[in-house]
What we know:
This protein is of the alpha+beta class. It has two domains: 1-30; 35-215, no CATH class. 16% of the residues lie in helices and 26% in strands. It has two helices and 14 strands; from the N terminus they run H-E-E-E-E-E-H-E-E-E-E-E-E-E-E-E. The protein has helices spanning 3-26, 114-123; strands at residues 36-38, 41-43, 64-65, 72-73, 109-110, 130-131, 141-146, 149-154, 158-159, 166-167, 171-180, 183-189, 198-204, 214-215. The strands form six sheets. It has a three-stranded antiparallel sheet with strand order 6-7-8, covered by helices on one side. Strand 3 (64-65) and strand 4 (72-73) form a beta hairpin. It is globular and about 45 Å long.
Amino acid sequence: MNPKILLTTILSILLFVSCSALRRTAFDPRTHDEGVVISGVRWATRNVDMPGTFAESPESPGMLYQWNRRVGWSSINPMINSDDETTWDSIIPSGRRWTRSNDPCPPGWRVPTERELNSLLRLYGAGRGSRTNWNNTGVNGHVFGTYPNQIFLPNTRSRAGSTGGLQGSGGSYWSSTQSLSTTAKYLFFLRAGMSGIMGMSDSDRSYGRSVRCVAK
């Protein structure tokens, strides 16, 4: 075979393999999310599921996390975590912030700060984004932003800090910001149809709550 033709063939094969690998990496639905920019912050469009992955769709609840821990817990019964264990850890997590090593967000993303979650509340306040049967999925929650730059936060419930039992019927999402030595800030909203009450509050860090990432 002509050396030039052979070289061209080899380069074409290498280019095809490289592009195929790039497509598989870039568009893996569990790790890749373009996100949307709201008020200068790029938000992921899906909750965190297993550590380092996103849920399959915006209406999927994903997993629940204790503050400053990277172990996810099921958002439905039976109670099981991402390590296939069933013993709830009721010890209050320590730390002054959610550390990078414990961050459950996929690469390029992190747990939002209290200020970033508050930016959603300031622009899209109580009741304005309440949704029932979002996109005919049967899932209730809250929409923040205006189309096409908007995110849907589903009602996900939470897990009690002392027992790990499921409780509530609205949404609760952790920030990376501590409030006291045993508590941290989180965004909450009651289920759609309950007057749209929402805001920021303090929570015992051992509670299991949802995580919605922002870009680093």
